[in-house]
Amino acid sequence: MSLQDFMNNAMSAWMSQEGPDSDIVLSSRVRLARNIEQFRFPTLASEEEFQNILTLFEEQFSNQTFPDIGSFVLLKMSELEPVQKRVLVEKHLISPSLAEDSAFSGCLLSVNEEVSIMVNEEDHIRIQCLFPGLQVKEALEVAGRLDDWIEKEVDYAFDENRGYLTSCPTNVGTGMRASVMMHLPALALTKQMNRIVPAINQLGLVVRGIYGEGSEALGNLFQISNQITLGKSEEDIAEDLLSVVQQLIAQERSAREAVLQASKIQLEDRIYRSYGILSNSRIIESKETARCLSDVRLGIDLGLIQNVSKNILNELMILTQPGFLQQYSGTGLTPDERDIRRAALIRERLKMEIDGG
């Protein structure tokens, strides 16, 4: 399989499209947690209950078509190979916990991969919508329509005073987590993130790494999401998030301009050194890859690097993950073999860009 064929089959829609403020915002996500009233929550549910829920989704929603989204297919985790589940995690389509607890869990996935509905994770249902760029409200609108679609077939666990009931108390209320993935290299370079993160936390939001809770902010990618789900409407939560994100966008652009004016030669040197590493390395680890990709993406956004797609960061941050590398290679790889294969894939991808492939 050629790299182009692999990319065509591997890239989700949000990775290959540009959305609003895409120079800084890679993606927007809205996730709704729901439970079905007649079943015990996953922490107490029996295998029979898990199986009944999975069967319900297979019979009622699999191979159905939803307006503006398309058709859905149910992926049963028990039928997937470990590397396939890892790829789904790396593409942000399922959570690591869904991949691990796979005996009676599944994912109802839209063909365009903008929507994934996880079944039997921490809650019975996790509706997730992913959009490119800053499109929180758009993702919320689609998630709401999907929520109504599912509720036509099931009764949700709901309390008039508390809202939607969830396994984790921190999700009770709206059951909604809205998040935005941002590339903030200038704020990180100027050490301003050390001051910004505590300020964001005081506003009821949280800053995490690329794969959510407990993950590292590799490649200067930060996930900003709400912490409060109770006492506010979905729309108010989205507005609060957008307000902070728009301020971060303005601060990042200001920081980029300041660094460019104060230290242009040093910045250019850093960016081109990183581009040279990516273009010529024969062995490269994940962390170095993330750092270099962040530098190159900054160079593209500032107009210092020409003829390279802005989506290169989105693509290669995913394609160079362990699961993708093994899927592309068609075999299991040791860590050293992954580092070699990662370097080769990056060189090949950059050559395609230069050659206009």
Give the topology.
Elements: H1 3-10, H2 13-16, E1 25-34, H3 47-60, E2 65-66, E3 70-76, H4 82-90, H5 96-100, E4 106-110, E5 115-119, E6 125-132, H6 136-151, E7 158-159, E8 163-164, E9 176-183, H7 185-189, H8 193-202, E10 205-208, E11 221-226, H9 234-262, H10 264-280, H11 286-301, H12 312-319, H13 322-329, H14 335-354
Antiparallel strand pairs: 1-6, 1-9, 2-3, 3-4, 4-5, 5-6, 7-8, 9-11, 10-11
Helix pairs in contact: 4-13, 10-11, 11-12, 13-14
Encode the helix/strand succession as letters.
Answer: HHEHEEHHEEEHEEEHHEEHHHHHH
Q: Hey, roughly how much beta strand do the residues contain?
A: 15-25%
- Quick one: how many beta strands? 11
Which strands sit side by side, in order, in the main sheet? Answer: 2-3-4-5-6-1-9-11-10
Strand-pairing-aware structural class: alpha+beta
Residue share in helix: 40-55%
- Write down the Rg: 21 Å
The N- to C-terminal Cα distance equals 15 Å
Mean pLDDT: 90
Profile the largest sheet.
9 strands, antiparallel
Helix segment count?
A: 14
Low-confidence stretches: none
Overall geometry comes to: globular
